[in-house]
């Protein structure tokens, strides 16, 4: 485990990492910018508790007090979930937000960076960022993809967010040499829905994912691995239904000239509003399901 002055790793997490006990990372953008209060705080706590019931230590990661915090106590989680102004921190924002001692919520990219620096190998999120739609007009591609090409972390996600251009997202992941595995499926899930028209490589067990990861490290291939884990069918919003809300949300973003880092939070909130909260329920369920799979992988990595 590497450590320096920028990191504050909670003692129980430090100990677990030193003893090779399973730990999973959790991101904080989903808390600060992905869900409204109090659902964000409830979800953050629920995700941590799910991990604990599986004998895995959760390490929610954020920037606070000029430190990259690995593991938050209840009061820090509450601060993150209720603070008026929280900066959305991707890779390029880390240094500045630390210097300003602002509260920063880490995206998938920044969480992968922090996890790797602190020795955590598995990370559960909702949906990763990717290539936004209307690529020919905006050239908006999430730093998450760059982070995958750089940091050897296993990320469990319900595919990429449905608000994105999923075929282009998968294409660029192929270009960057990032392994994408469907967890017990050969169909790329589309966040709110189990399916899409996109085929991916299926992988049958948590153990096998761990073995591929280990093999990559032995080979000196240090990309992250995306484990695409579909939401359980009973909780999904079928693509035809959610697509109507996504289109409407994209149209409103365009009308209000919303772009860059503000776009994802705007779209997610709009879709929750348009679906009368159903999209929020779905987002919570898929995140819970991702934590369960991440715990299985983290536990299997010990052997
Ligand atoms: N998935 C969710 N809610 C979120 C996000 C993902 O269910 O809020 C966040 C993640 O933190 C992801 C980020 O890394 O959106 C992508 O933002 P951008 O496109 O600006 O890189
Ligand atoms: Mn984006």
Quickly give the structural class: alpha/beta
Secondary structure: helix percent:
40-55%
The CATH superfamily title = Indigoidine synthase domain
**Which band does the percent of strand residues land in?**
5-15%
Mean pLDDT, rounded to whole units? 95
Count of helix runs:
13
Number of strands: 11
Number of domains: 1
Order of helices and strands: EHEHHEEHEHEHEHHEHEEHEHHH
Question: Could you describe the 3D structure shown?
Answer:
Helices cover 47% and strands 14% of the residues. It has 303 residues and is an alpha/beta fold. The protein has a single domain, classed as Indigoidine synthase fold. Helix 11 (239-255) crosses helix 12. It starts with 6 loop residues before the first strand and ends with a helix. The mean pLDDT is 95. Bound molecules: pseudouridine-5'-monophosphate (PSU) and manganese (II) ion (MN). The site of manganese (II) ion has 6 residues, from helix 12.
Structural key phrases:
303 residues, alpha/beta, Indigoidine synthase fold, eleven-stranded mixed beta sheet, 11 strands, binds pseudouridine-5'-monophosphate, binds manganese (II) ion
In short:
With 303 residues, the chain is an alpha/beta fold. It is 47% helix and 14% strand.
How is the topology of this model organized?
Elements: E1 7-9, H1 11-18, E2 23-26, H2 29-32, H3 39-53, E3 57-64, E4 67-70, H4 74-82, E5 87-89, H5 94-99, E6 104-106, H6 108-118, E7 122-124, H7 135-138, H8 143-150, E8 154-157, H9 166-175, E9 180-183, E10 201-203, H10 206-219, E11 225-228, H11 239-255, H12 263-274, H13 278-300
Parallel strand pairs: 1-4, 2-3, 2-7, 5-6, 7-8, 8-11, 9-10, 9-11
Antiparallel strand pairs: 3-4, 3-6
Bound molecules: pseudouridine-5'-monophosphate and manganese (II) ion.
Residues 129, 132, 140, 142, 263-264 line the site of manganese (II) ion.
